[in-house]
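Request: When convenient, would you put together a sequence paired with its C-alpha cells?
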Amino acid sequence: MNGNRMARVDSEIQTALSNTLTYDMNSKELEGVMVSVISCHTSKDLKHCKVLISIYPEIDKEKKFFAIKNSIPFLRRELARKVNLRIVPELQFEIDDSAAYGANIDRLIASLHKGENND
C-alpha cells in the first residue's frame, strides 16, 4: 500500500482509539486515568495494529493496562463503527515508557551537573 495511505489509516485509527478511550470507556479501573494514544503502526495488510499508549498516573499501571487489554473487543467494535475500513485490525497494545525514560535521563544529567558544581 502507498505510504501516504498507511499514514492516513494510522492517523484515523489513532484518533478513533483516543476518542474511544477518553469518552466511551465505562471501566471502573480507568476512572480518573488519562490514557493517551502515542502512535499506531498498522501492517500493510491491515490485519494487525500496534498501539503505543501512555497511562497517567503511574500508580497501578499494570492493572490499568490489563483493563485496556480486556476491552480490546469493545475497542475493535468502536473502531469498526468510527473508521471506514474493510478489515478492522487486531489491536496489540504496548505501554510507551519514553516519558519515564526521558525523566530518568534528565535526573541523571542533573545529578552530574550537581556533582560538577560541588567540585
